[in-house]
């Protein structure tokens, strides 16, 4: 099972049926599989904070949701996380394409890519970095369990080492 299929399996195991995302080529492999699967409802958002708001609303209505975004967009979502998702204790797993690491070709992605983890630490958001698909099933299950048991958002960072990155 490849990394995208492992994510889909974890989402299903945790009854996460609404997937909100901001389109990004590096997460297209997983979002295209989600789009083809009738189990899921895939919603494209225009901005990351909108994606967080939709996911929080879904949870409030009784439906588990997850968010997919790029690390540069994570910066756009900080206020929605800090003022809505965290205080409301909403368990939203966020799958974040972490840019700026080995193989990055776009210098504009480096600064925010490096800032993501320290920002998460300051917000108290648990986070996990996936660089390969070894033991990914156990990590995803544990992350989803932590997210729901603590009723808080959590980030699973997908690296270029995992998904192959973008080409210049």
Properties at a glance:
Rossmann fold, 168 residues, six-stranded parallel β-sheet, alpha/beta, globular, 7 helices
Description:
With 168 residues, this protein is of the alpha/beta class. The protein has helices at residues 3-13, 28-36, 48-60, 71-85, 110-123, 136-149, 160-163; strands at residues 16-21, 41-44, 64-70, 93-97, 127-130, 154-158. It has a 6-stranded parallel beta sheet with strand order 2-1-3-4-6-5, with helices on both faces. α1 packs across α2 (28-36) and α3 packs across α4. It is globular, with a radius of gyration of 14 Å.
Rg calculated over all Cα atoms: 14 Å
Q: Total domains, how many?
A: 1
The beta-strand count equals: 6
CATH topology call: Rossmann fold
Mean pLDDT: 91
Q: Label the overall shape.
A: globular
CATH class: Alpha Beta
Which strand order spans the largest sheet, edge to edge or round the barrel?
2-1-3-4-6-5
Spell out the CATH superfamily. Answer: Thiamin diphosphate (ThDP)-binding fold, Pyr/PP domains
CATH architecture: 3-Layer(aba) Sandwich
Poorly predicted residue ranges: none
